[in-house]
Specification:
This protein has twelve helices and no strands. With about 290 residues, it is mainly α. It has one domain: Orthogonal Bundle (MetI-like fold). α2 crosses α3. The longest helix has about 35 residues, at about 80-115. The two termini are about 30 Å apart.
Length: about 290
């Protein structure tokens, strides 16, 4: 066996072990499968392949689920299937955008607080002040102040969930800040910024990745709640929350208007939670060492 082969084995083995653990974790596979279905549905909705979600047909009002209308129609004769599928890409867009905002600002704030003790107290007290409010109430207050709209909703949810991620990053950074390899980097003359980017964050990202999957689920659930309350994207934008809100007056005569978007929310949140739990189990070093 050559020297190059000997060097390649230690690098490839951990990757194969990680992939094997991921594929053998039933919850993670199911969660990933649900997420793939969501993405495919979002692509179908974005391309308009599920039909026109805004098409009104008064001759087709309150049609029960059938072969022609799989999920039935609403009080305007619009296809619930088309509206639910079209709303999928909006929910994915909101979820991904909130995760991006939370990741950038949460990681930045948490890394600064965890690495610089002098700033830790001030930054974390600000985060604690935001976390003192229930997330949905804080999101409602921010969204109401900014006004209804897709962008304002994303900003409101991003602000709401950033403190959570910041605390997780801070805890992870505190765990590695005084490690020997960090001290070696300091003694070698590396700047604080380089140490954080090259050494601290790469060894602190496992819990952050897991947390962001849960933030994705929370964002989808919160978007539906805020849209239902009227502080999300205004109708007739077919978000899942808007569809449920429009169907609440017809729960007795046409319950399918609210049932199907509710099921879409439930399956999406379930899938993301299973994915997050699976990633936590796979990436937890205490479990991978067994």
């Amino acid at each position: 066996m050559t020297e190059s082969t000997l060097q390649a084995v230690p690098l490839e083995k951990p990757r194969n072990q990680l992939l094997s653990r991921m594929l053998s974790h039933r919850g993670l596979v199911i969660g990933a499968g649900i997420l793939v279905v969501m993405v495919l549905a979002g692509i179908v909705g974005l391309l308009g392949l599920a039909g026109d979600a805004l098409k009104i047909s008064y001759q087709s009002r309150f049609v029960e689920p059938s072969a022609e209308f799989v999920f039935g129609t609403d009080h305007y004769g619009r296809s619930i299937f088309s509206r639910v599928v079209t709303g999928t890409h909006l929910s994915l867009l909101i979820g991904i955008s909130v995760v991006a905002i939370t990741a950038v600002f949460g990681v930045l704030i948490g890394a600064i607080a965890g690495y610089f003790p002098r700033l830790d107290g001030l930054i974390m007290r600000c985060m604690d002040a935001l976390m003192a409010f229930p997330p949905i109430m804080l999101a409602i207050a921010i969204a109401a102040a900014l006004g209804a709209g897709l962008l304002n909703l994303i900003v409101a949810l991003g602000i709401t969930y950033t403190p959570r991620t910041a605390r997780i990053v801070r805890a992870a950074v505190l765990g590695v800040r005084n490690s020997e390899y960090i001290e070696s980097a300091r003694l070698s003359g590396a700047s604080d910024g380089r140490i954080i980017v090259k050494h601290v964050l790469p060894n602190s990202m496992a819990p952050v990745i897991v947390d962001l999957t849960f933030v994705f689920a929370y964002a989808i659930l919160a978007e539906a709640a805020l849209s239902f309350l009227g502080v999300g994207p205004p109708p007739p934008v077919p978000t899942w929350g808007n569809i449920i809100a429009e169907g609440r007056d017809y729960l007795v005569d046409a319950p399918w208007i609210s049932i199907f978007p509710g099921l879409a929310i439930g399956f999406s949140v379930l899938g993301l939670n299973l994915l997050g739990d699976g990633l936590r189990d796979v990436l937890d070093p205490r479990l991978t060492s067994k």
